[in-house]
Amino acid sequence: MNTKNILLIALIALISNACSDDDLFQVPATSLSDETILTSKETANTVLMGAYAQTGDYRYLTIGEISLDVMGNDIKITDGAYGFSTYNWLMYAYNYIQYPRTVDGWWSAYAAYLWRYAYRAIDQANLLINNADKLPAGCEDIVAQAYGIRAYNFLNLYHLFCPAYTAAGDAGQGLFLRLTSGSADGNNVPRSNLRESLSQIIADFTYAYQNCTSTSNYFINKTNTALLLARTYLDMGDYENAQKYAEAACANFDGTNLMSKEEYQSGFNTANSEWLWAFNFVPETSNIYASIPSFYHAATFKDPASTFGTEDYGSKVTYDYLAANAVDWMTGYSTVRITWSFAALYGKDDCRALFPFYIDEKDGLFTSKYSSKGSLGIADYPMARTAEAYLIEAECLVRKNNPKALEVLNALQSKRGGTLSTEASIDEVWKERRRELYGEGFALPDIKRLQKPLERTGDEHWTNVKNLPPNNPRMMFPIPLDELDYNKNATSADQNEYWRN
Fold it and tell me: Do residues 352 and 484 share a domain?
């Protein structure tokens, strides 16, 4: 991301933070008139960079992505008993007790933060989409990216706040589809059903796919939008279209377009050719302690070869900043842990088993999948990777009883040094999705989409919520009460079932 774009992100973030915190009736995202915004390509791009900035805000991207993983089976938050305070971050998501309004500090009700920043990004995208015909020549790709950003945020809200379409069907409770920018009337939209919601997401991604001309993997482009379309169609159980767009995003499935073992083991911090869309955090935009690497990464061994998975998945170390041992500490919050049962899903040569050590066996394993470029939080974050296309392709082939599914699955496993599958099944693909995509926000969406129960290995989890049946209403965040209080077209029935009084 170039210096101009960094400055534009900083500018729009400052403007946005100066706006009202009201979830619904905000000052228009730029605090400038439409006439001013639409006078040049540069000002239009400023609005687009604002939409990206809101999408990457730590109160949304960090909290949302990690929540979707710690609400699954394989990743947990430390209980604070072994030298690392939980800082209350993400405990309430892991423990399935997020509230629709603050009960015990902001961390008990950050559904409101997720909601606010998603809709701020959507509002800024709407400003461009609604005024596309007034923009000067040369803004076509800016508008196309705006459609993509709006669709991504609607899709993310779907994963966080809605039931799975594969379970609830067309009539399930969907999104508040805000499609106009900045006005009170535009915010008073009813809650749509899932068919309307997902159809809008598909329409927006399709526009981006057909009209994007950017090739940078730091921005919405044709290739990453194809993968996002495949992801959405998979959510809908439309496997024909999911396969179609997975193949549009991935030219072949022979392993040659996947990152090397060395690249995977380097600690995700720099986009490479496998990363179809990466969010770029630089010193001017990084959240430092509130960054995603801060929650995952604590340290590495000074000998890089010792940092990665072994048959025993790590060794016991002493937590001591000053210890003259083999460990380099770069401690953030460092509260995310990997369960031993999840680590056992990897073969001893699998490069993805990035679980170098533990402090106390009961607290689980650290992971070094995420790291920083020298300073904490300075890192790229993967929003879409080619490996996901492999897994979508494999699942779609399984559902068609096509024997090539095993070939695609094994191409990915072979590249990672994993144990090759002997058969392809939905459960085998799901297991491979867990191994490949952990820490990237897929755990809970996959459980919901596949209508799986939550099954946490009891002695590894401190939470009381260790098992939930498929399609359980607790698998959705509550709709923030400000939405229900101030949206004139919302009613108490729009609250997600588990959270209704």
Answer: no
Q: Which residue stretches of 378-459 are H helix?
A: 386-399, 404-416, 426-437, 443-449
How do residues 304-318 score in pLDDT, each as one tens digit?
Answer: 555 555 455 666 766
Q: Is 493 exposed, middle or buried (0-12, 13-18, 19+ CB in 10 A)?
A: exposed
Instruction: Flag whether 94 is in a domain.
Output: no
pTM higher than the cut 0.85 = yes
Using alpha carbons only, what angle is made at residue 323 by residues 322 and 328, rounded to the nearest 5 degrees? 80
Which contacts qualify for 283-286: CB closer than 8 Å, 24 or more apart? 283/375, 283/378, 284/6, 284/7, 284/9, 284/10, 285/6, 285/9, 285/10, 285/13, 285/53, 285/56, 286/375, 286/377, 286/378, 286/379
Task: Kindly report the number of other CB atoms within 10 A of residue 255's CB atom.
Answer: 15
Please tell me whether residues 377 and 393 are part of one structural domain: no
Share of the chain above pLDDT 70, in %: 85
State whether residue 337 is helix, strand or coil: strand
Is 424 within a domain?
no
Residue pair 12/30 in contact by the 8 Å Cβ criterion: yes
d(CA 239, CA 262): 33
Bridge-based pairing of strands 315-316 and 275-280 is: unpaired
Q: What are the tens digits of pLDDT across the range 76-103? A: 999 988 877 888 899 999 999 988 888 7
Give the chain's count of helices (H) and strands (E): 20, 12
Cβ-in-10-Å burial (0-12, 13-18, 19+) of 2 comes to exposed
The answer to whether 489 and 464 have CB atoms below 8 angstroms apart is no
Helix (H) or strand (E) holding 400: none
Integer Cα distance of 470 and 166 in angstroms: 12
Contact 18, 477 (CB under 8 A): no
In this structure, the answer to whether residues 287 and 241 fall within a common structural domain is no
Flag whether 413 is in a domain.
no
Task: Give the number of other Cβ atoms within 10 Å of residue 267's Cβ.
Answer: 22
Distance CA 308, CA 306 (A): 6
Chain length of the chain:
501
Structural domain containing residue 366: 281-382
Q: Residue 370 carries which DSSP code?
A: B
CATH number of the domain within which 182 lies: 1.25.40.390
Residue 330 domain-assigned (yes or no): yes
Cβ burial 194-220 (10 Å sphere, 16+ → b, else e): beebbbbbbebbbbbbebbebeebbbb
